[in-house]
Amino acid sequence: MQPDIEIYLKDADQEAVHAWLATAFKHCSAWRRKGSLARCDCDGIEVTWYNKAVGSWHSLLFASSATPWDSDLACAQAAFAALAVEIRCAPGSWQEADGEADADRWLKVNAQGIEEFIWRS
């Protein structure tokens, strides 16, 4: 299990994302918006939406390891299946102590499948 889950969604509609969250969790509160971010609570987990965190990519962060998914990739696959937009995520849990060499390694999930690539955000 990862300590948290974070995925990046290409041009995703925030309300469509919330509708997907409502199917993945028993209870999701409405978004509480403040500037370019919004938060909701899904089964006691704080979920943060960073609008256009990197260019046209939105970040979705689950501040818990107790999500329905055991990895960023599992969440990315579920999000792609529900939303049909390209999703990006780290290939595993990364921390600054791991060094810069692997910081740009990412996975993308789209209609072609899963592919590792270098994303210099």
* Structural class determined from secondary elements: alpha+beta
Number of strands: 8
**What percent of residues adopt helix (DSSP H or I)?**
10-25%
Main sheet characteristics: 8 strands, antiparallel
In DSSP terms (H or I, runs of 4 or more residues), the helix count works out at: 2
Q: What is Rg?
A: 14 Å
Compute the average pLDDT. Answer: 91
Q: Order the strands across the largest sheet as they lie in space.
A: 2-3-4-5-1-6-7-8
Instruction: Supply the number of structural domains.
Output: 1
User: Ends: how far apart?
Assistant: 25 Å
Q: Based on CA inertia axes, which overall geometry fits?
A: globular
**Which segments are poorly predicted (pLDDT under 50) over 5 or more consecutive residues?**
none
Tell me what portion of residues adopts beta-strand conformation.
Answer: 35-45%
Descriptive overview:
The protein has 121 residues and is an alpha+beta fold. The protein has one domain. The chain is built from 2 helices and 8 strands. The protein has helices at 14-24, 72-83; strands at residues 5-10, 32-34, 37-42, 45-54, 57-62, 87-89, 105-110, 113-118. The protein has an 8-stranded antiparallel beta sheet with strand order 2-3-4-5-1-6-7-8, with helices on one face. The radius of gyration is 14 Å and the shape is globular. The mean pLDDT is 91.
